[in-house]
Amino acid sequence: MHSPNQESDFIGPTAPLLKWAGGKTQLLTQLQPYFPKHYDRLIEPFIGGAAIYFHLRPPHALLGDVNPELVNFYRVVRELPEELMIAVDAIAARHADGEDPEMIYYDVRNRQPVDLPTDALDVDGIPIRQEDRVWVAARTLYLNKTGFNGLFRVNSQGRFNVPWGRRKRLPKLYSRDEIHNASLLLHGAEIVLADFGDVLDQARPGDFVYLDPPYFPVSATANFTSYTRLDFPAEQQQRLADWLHTLDQRGVAFVLNNSDTPFTREIYAGFPIDVALAKRMINSDAGKRGAVNELIVYNVT
Fold first, then answer.
1. Could you give the CA distance from residue 256 to residue 266 in angstroms, rounded to a whole number?
2. Does residue 127 sit in the same domain as residue 145?
3. Residue 2: is it exposed, middle or buried by C-beta count within 10 angstroms (0-12/13-18/19+)?
4. How confident is the model at residue 170, as a pLDDT?
5. Residue 176 and residue 286: Cα distance in Å, rounded?
6. Which of 39, 42, 84, 209 could join 61 in a cystine, given CB atoms 3.0 to 4.6 angstroms apart?
7. Are 148 and 92 in the same domain?
8. Which of left, alpha, beta for 149 (phi over 0: left; psi -120 to 50: alpha)?
9. pLDDT tier at 291 (50, 70, 90 boundaries)?
10. Using CA atoms, how far apart are residues 145 and 33, in angstroms rounded to an integer?
11. Structural domain contains residue 139
């Protein structure tokens, strides 16, 4: 077995390239003791902002998600980093030229990937042509950094509908070093558009699985999980919990995070459960942002 970063020590540090609701950067110190010291491969079926992946920097990984824009983004970072930065710079140049930031945002937002011709997309809904793939990835990055709180949300037609973040000054969109470091690291990763069950079915002894699913809402107004056209209701939460038992029976180490609710505590009963304290900043009402408890469910000893 490898140490987590045995073959990637030459790659410089990489922070998450995207802001992500529920991102795990702030929890790294609390989560680190739960991660195994040695494993063959990291598996993440909900890649999101990939904070854990970029923190651990494993030489081998299987990264999955059901969000085609997210999968396309990480593939473009891996394969076409220079082209991606050129495309992002072209959007940023419009700000430098004095165009209205709000108009730029909605112009970019309205160029929806789902509006590409059917024959320009593969069976997974990911662009086929390189220039389209790069543009969609640049759009993903730009909207992520300039939209409201880094939220990713689409409607039932798959159209991104997050409003402008009302920032008059353009934030830093990327770090050249971090894009290059991420590209190098991602060459050791298989990046798949797949249901979490299909990803987890590939787990074998020696793998380490980290799971950061769409959280079960703690209230009726706290559900930010619909970042694809597929919801993640209680039935899916239960299905995921059932998969933990399968992983455990296979001898696969795992760590999972989710919200702290009676329902989640019930479905994860039978595994060790600890609590982490997280700050949540995604609420549109600043008065309702603050520290919340999150579950750490694990079988790693």
1. 14
2. yes
3. middle
4. 95
5. 32
6. 42
7. yes
8. left
9. confident
10. 31
11. yes
Please list, in sequence order, all residues whose beta carbon lies within 8 angstroms of the beta carbon of residue 118, skipping any fewer than 6 positions away. none
Do 132 and 201 lie in one domain? The reply is no
Residues 204 and 294 in one domain: yes
Half-sphere exposure of 70 toward its Cβ, with a 13 Å CA cutoff?
25
CB 208 within 8 A of CB 55: no
- Is 135 strand, coil or helix? helix
In this predicted model, what pLDDT tens digit does every residue of 224-275 receive, in sequence order? 544 454 578 899 999 999 999 999 999 999 999 999 999 999 999 999 999 9
Number of domains forming the structure of the chain: 2
Q: What is the pLDDT of residues 170-194, one digit of tens each?
A: 999 999 999 999 999 999 999 999 9
Residues 87 and 228 in one domain: no
Residue type, 60: H
- Of residues 239 and 10, the one with the higher pLDDT is 239
Residues in the chain: 301
User: Which of 10-14, 75-79, 113-117, 223-227 has the largest mean confidence?
Assistant: 75-79
174-184 burial: b if 16+ Cβ within 10 Å, else e: beeebbbbbbb
What gap in Å lies between CA 115 and CA 277, rounded to an integer?
A: 41
CA angle 24, 133, 224 (to 5 degrees): 35
How many contiguous H segments (helices) and E segments (strands) does the chain have?
Answer: 10, 7
| pTM score of the predicted model | 0.91
**CATH number of the domain residue 199 falls in:** 3.40.50.150
- Name the strands in the sheet holding 41-44, side by side, starting at the edge strand that comes first in the sequence: 189-193, 61-65, 41-44, 207-211, 253-259, 290-298, 273-280
Q: Is residue 278 part of a domain?
A: yes
| 45 and 102 in a common domain | no
